[in-house]
Design a protein that fits this description.
By secondary structure, the protein is of the alpha+beta class. It has 6 helices and 4 strands.
């Protein structure tokens, strides 16, 4: 909501949250922190590891949210999508680490060179492919490689 972004809101600091006092109706301490969360489908890791890996790494700071809200306030005719797109273009260094590497192979896959042949080293790898019949996937650091059975 952009209603009060122009007043440059700041966090008011209260004593740390006290669950005992709060449970009996005494509200003189901070609220329990509410993190910005992302929720996903329970089977997403198996269904689409790339999307799962991206969402796992994704972390939008409160500063980024405030920057976008201020942008929206200044550019009221722009859609939220336009504002978000502008932020993405201007802050590439913040979101590019969220993108999984092309050589992050999952179980059942292995590293391959540009010509499609299996390789055992990230130095020679350009991507991942599913292991062919007669081959099996073996964990190798943060990735997997295909080895003959």
């Amino acid at each position: 909501d952009i209603s009060f972004i122009h007043v440059d809101p700041a966090r008011v600091v209260f004593p740390p949250y006290n669950v005992k006092e709060s449970s009996i109706g005494i509200f003189k301490t901070d609220i329990d922190r509410l993190p910005l969360l992302k929720y996903v489908y329970n089977g997403l890791k198996a269904a689409s590891y790339g999307v799962y890996s991206f969402l796992k790494r994704m972390a939008v700071s409160m500063e980024a949210v405030e920057t976008m809200l201020k942008d929206k306030k200044l550019n009221a005719d722009d859609s939220y999508e336009t504002v978000a797109c502008r932020w993405l273009r201007q802050h590439e260094e913040e979101w590019t680490p969220w993108i999984p590497s092309a050589t992050e192979c999952v179980a059942g896959q292995g590293l391959v060179a540009k010509n499609g042949s299996y390789v055992l080293s990230l130095l020679n790898a350009s991507g991942c492919q599913w292991c062919r019949p007669g081959w099996h996937s073996v964990s190798s650091g943060n990735t997997h490689v295909c080895k003959p059975c």
